[in-house]
Design a protein that fits this description.
Blueprint lengths: L1 E3 L18 E2 L2 E2 L5 E4 L7 E8 L3 H4 L3 E10 L4 E3 L2 E7 L3 H8 L4 E2 L15 H4 L12 E10 L12 H10 L5 E9 L2
Antiparallel strand pairs: 1-4, 2-3, 4-8, 5-6, 5-10, 6-9, 7-8, 10-11
Family: Belongs to the UPF0098 family.
Pfam families: PBP
InterPro entries: PEBP, PEBP-like_sf, YbhB_YbcL/LppC-like
């Protein structure tokens, strides 16, 4: 599986420099578009995590920006330029609950007791755009494909629950990832 985007630096609309209309409680919430190509033909569900390993020296842990689980591949649009590639559109995080209600989004690091957010699900259980406070950071988008949904997950799951489910209950048949940069 190959994961790609039309950029190597997260565009302003999806990150720290996002306009006010693309923010909730000061946090950028419009998710960026990306492509998933060459998925194993057995795969029926997608799951992903978008994280910031460069946040570890800043806050003491890898910041979770977005997690998705149990997204049926059949519910996605194919890229018009490549009938084998799946296209994840911009703002998918906010649109997904209405478009594909059976798919799940997990909590991001804004839900952490150490961050002090008010618990607004539009911020804590959706995409949070990169906002590196110290320097440019490299971000990782990792996507897994499975033949079945990961059982036992609910809206607002934690990333570790997804990871345990992928290891112990539903083995991925394919996976891939990409790195992008977020500007300070």
């Amino acid at each position: 599986m190959k994961i790609s985007a039309d950029f190597t630096v997260v565009p302003d609309d999806f990150a720290k420099a996002a306009a006010q209309q693309y923010r909730v409680d000061g946090v950028p919430v419009i998710s960026f578009p990306f492509y998933i190509d060459g998925v194993d033909s057995q795969a029926r569900y997608l799951h992903w995590a978008f994280t910031d390993p460069d946040s570890i020296p800043v806050c003491g842990f890898e910041w979770i920006h977005w997690t998705v689980a149990n997204l049926p591949i059949d519910a996605l649009m194919f890229d018009f330029n490549d009938s084998y590639a799946l296209a994840i559109p911009p703002d998918f995080s906010r649109q997904m609950p209405a478009m594909i209600p059976e798919a799940l989004q997990g909590r991001n690091s804004s839900a952490s007791q150490f961050v002090g957010r008010d618990g607004n699900p539009a911020v804590t259980m959706r995409y949070n755009g990169p906002q590196p406070p110290d320097k440019d950071h490299d971000y990782c988008l990792h996507v897994w494909a499975t033949t079945q949904p990961v059982p036992g997950l609910n809206q607002g799951f934690w990333l570790n629950e997804l990871m345990h489910g992928l290891r112990e209950k539903v083995q991925p048949v394919d996976q891939g990832g990409m790195f992008v940069t977020g500007k300070a």
